[in-house]
Here is the input.
Amino acid sequence: MKIAVILRLTADLTEELELTQDGRDIDREWIGLVLNEFDDQALEQAILLKEATGAEVTVLAIDGEGVERMLRTALARGADAVHRIPADESPLSSRALTPLYAAAVREVGADLVLAGVLATDDLHGELAPYLAAELGWPQASAVSDVRIDNGDALVRQEYSAGRAARLALPLPAVIGLQTASRPPRYVVGSRLRDLLKVEVPEMAVDATPAATGIAPATLALPDHGAGAEMIEGTGEEIAERLHAILAERGLA
Amino acid sequence: MRVLVHVEHDAGAVTDTAFELLAIARSLGGEVEALVMGAEPEPLAGQLGGADRVVAVADSALEAYLPDAHGAALQTAIRERSPDLVLLSYGTVGLDIAPPAAHACGLPLVCHAVALRLEESVLAVCSQIYGGKLVANSLVPLPAIAMAMPGAARAEDGRLDGVPPVESMVVPASGAAGIRRVETLQPETCGVDLTQAERIVCVGRAIGGADKLAPAEDLARLLDAEIAGSRPVIDAGWLPKARQVGKSGATVKPRLYFMAGVSGAPEHLEGMSDSELIVALNTDESAPIFAKAHFGAVCDMFDVLPRLAARLKDS
Ligand SMILES: Cc1cc2nc3c(=O)[nH]c(=O)nc-3n(C[C@H](O)[C@H](O)[C@H](O)COP(=O)(O)OP(=O)(O)OC[C@H]3O[C@@H](n4cnc5c(N)ncnc54)[C@H](O)[C@@H]3O)c2cc1C
Ligand SMILES: Nc1ncnc2c1ncn2[C@@H]1O[C@H](COP(=O)(O)O)[C@@H](O)[C@H]1O
Here is the structure.
């Protein structure tokens, strides 16, 4: 069995985000880029399936800054092959990129595609359901466990309030992963160093981005309204004030 | 202007998020059609006074949610009703079925919408992106599909009296891709019910491990509070699932919600924003939680939590 995993870099949300002059994008020259956390879960799930079934794992990413390093890490975590897909303009929304990913998935000959359930900048819809629609395969999103059983992907799909269902999707299928069956593993530094010089091949695909039907959005900082009353000071001063706030309300 | 609202329901009750969508649809003016799918959806019309018409798809295959069957029914409804706007709510169902509908029907789709306004024949949509750190303003040509964030409107404004006329719609069985529901799983409880808690201390990913919970647990003990976690804390196995707050966990409304190392992503806020008093500690002054909290401090929680605990112990 062949599994394709799609990885994307996204803004590190523990940092402050700055906008470009025209407000069309975040300022990618300054912000830190990290692996999209749900794609990280998708990669882990793929490696777990490889360990359980002997499946072959191929990782795909649209090329760009930092992508080679990200893909080397995927190799260190146990992926069998990694590919960079060149795209003329980036960044494009997942919807626009769907035909490129679909062509790469066909090229790999995958029976199962795992992608993160979302990226926080997917304004035009999520990758997994678009990709499934393009490929004509079944799809389920918000999934937190995947097993392979008799030609089916057996997944746990989560709804609100902790409710969930186990669904069987006939393969080939696409899964929008939220959480892997086990937390993502750490990569040993030495393993990563060994891979430092590994060439990450390009996979040119014969496909062009799709139209989204919407002109690029204008980004802005949210209007926070009043927001929280901020407590300033040293750790001790903050603790003192917090204690007073709780005591005033009969909570301490 | 005609708006088709995808109505989710559960155990015979229309969900709050569906009422929110009806409220949004009504605020745009024009006609509102409620799309209801299920084994016997007609009786739900009695709850859908917020719509001018109910489009009911009755099929035993639609009794329990299935991404392919429900997705195919949505696409048929869009083709038959040709609405100017289709509204869905951001949740598992919306994530599954909105993009394929946009793809199949060739419609634009805009997600994470918190405000929608009609500007002549164009829909001006404000969306929340990057975990609530930025907003994106889009001008969306109609017809289109929009997925709204829970809480984008007030459910009361969509929950109106009256029983609108019901039109039945038949969906060809061929649309489905063979997905089967093997088992329906009930929430794990393990003896805690956060929804009943008066006081909650919630830790986020920044806690960094089950072995680092002690300062937060001390504080919870001293405040007589339940300990809770954001989703990453539960996913990492540091706290049990029954202690998760948010979209896929519990929706809570305690007197005190004390949070440390939680960024305040929309999916977390969905579960706690009605708390009476929200206090947040975070090292990032631009963390979205500071927009929602009543009191906040930019600080290292590992510094402040033990200090606060010591003061509570002394008093
Ligand atoms: C379909 C779906 C459903 C979801 N359901 C839920 C849900 O039910 N509940 C939920 O919580 N999330 C849910 N999420 C995930 C959600 O999108 C966020 O990823 C999650 O809430 C982030 O958790 P966090 O705030 O703990 O982590 P992060 O966003 O990583 O935030 C950690 C924060 O800690 C701060 N920090 C770091 N060090 C310190 C320190 N020493 N002291 C103080 N602060 C520090 C950082 O500045 C940062 O703001 C869902 C996502 C999806 C897609
Ligand atoms: N017939 C239906 N039509 C639309 N949404 C549904 C239907 N049945 C269940 N849902 C939604 O699907 C999700 C899963 O529900 P359940 O199958 O009851 O766990 C919930 O978000 C429900 O609101």
Notes: The mean pLDDT of chain A is 95. Chain A touches chain B through 83 residues (CB under 8 Å). The helical segments of chain A are 37-53, 67-76, 94-108, 127-135, 189-194, 235-248. Residues 37-53 of chain A form the longest helix (17 residues).
